[in-house]
């Protein structure tokens, strides 16, 4: 099984290119904090190359910038090429199946200009752009999102 889940911040703006068959592909680097501190008490981060294809690549380019927080799920892939010196080079990157935007540009700009750390309980619907659907889950994270689901034990195969 080859599955990767990451949450981090973009270290640079995404780069969008098109293949010879006109498929969009975006690349960026993601800084992911480690769960522990080093001997100096500082938290270190890993910098991971991400590749996104098709419509999602165009969305990444249009809506994300350096500092944006995202969640990625995908798979690891290693590729090789011959360097200018004739030596074989290896590149390991995550091919993203899904990129989930975790903050909006407005809330990111506000958090970068203040010294407070992210507290998602303080996010209000006004922090998001008008084209982004929002639902207040401050009091009830299981509140109705507009559609009901009926579960019937009689239909289960076991």
Structural class: mainly beta
**Global morphology:** globular
What is the number of strand segments? 6
By CATH reckoning, the class would read: Mainly Beta
Low-pLDDT segments: 113-138
Mean pLDDT, nearest integer? 78
Name the assembly state: single chain
**Strand residues, percent:** 35-45%
Here the CATH topology equals OB fold (Dihydrolipoamide Acetyltransferase, E2P)
Secondary-structure element string: EEEEHEEH
User: How many whole angstroms does the radius of gyration measure?
Assistant: 20 Å
CATH architecture: Beta Barrel
Q: Widest sheet: strand order?
A: 1-3-4-6-5
User: First CA to last CA: what distance?
Assistant: 26 Å
Number of domains: 1
**Biggest sheet overview:** 5 strands, mixed, barrel
The number of helical segments is 2
Description:
This protein is mainly beta. The chain has one domain (4-129): OB fold (Dihydrolipoamide Acetyltransferase, E2P) (Beta Barrel), CATH 2.40.50. The protein has two helices and six strands. The chain has helices spanning 54-63, 105-113; strands at residues 4-10, 15-18, 24-37, 43-53, 69-82, 88-101. A five-stranded mixed β-barrel has the order 1-3-4-6-5. Strand 5 and strand 6 form a beta hairpin.
């Amino acid at each position: 099984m080859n599955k990767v889940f990451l949450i981090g911040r973009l270290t640079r703006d995404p780069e969008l290119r098109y293949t010879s068959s006109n498929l969009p592909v975006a690349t960026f680097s993601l800084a992911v904090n480690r769960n522990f501190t080093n001997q100096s008490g500082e938290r270190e981060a890993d910098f991971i190359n991400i590749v996104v294809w098709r419509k999602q690549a165009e969305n990444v380019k249009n809506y994300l910038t350096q500092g944006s927080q995202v969640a990625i799920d995908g798979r690891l892939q290693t590729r090789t090429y011959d360097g200018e010196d004739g030596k074989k080079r290896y590149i390991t990157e995550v091919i993203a199946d899904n990129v989930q935007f975790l903050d909006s540009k407005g809330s990111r700009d506000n958090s970068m200009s203040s010294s407070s750390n992210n507290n998602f309980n303080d996010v209000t619907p006004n922090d998001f752009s008008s084209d982004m659907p929002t639902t207040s889950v401050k009091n009830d994270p299981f509140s109705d999102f507009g559609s009901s689901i009926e579960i019937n034990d009689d239909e289960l195969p076991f």
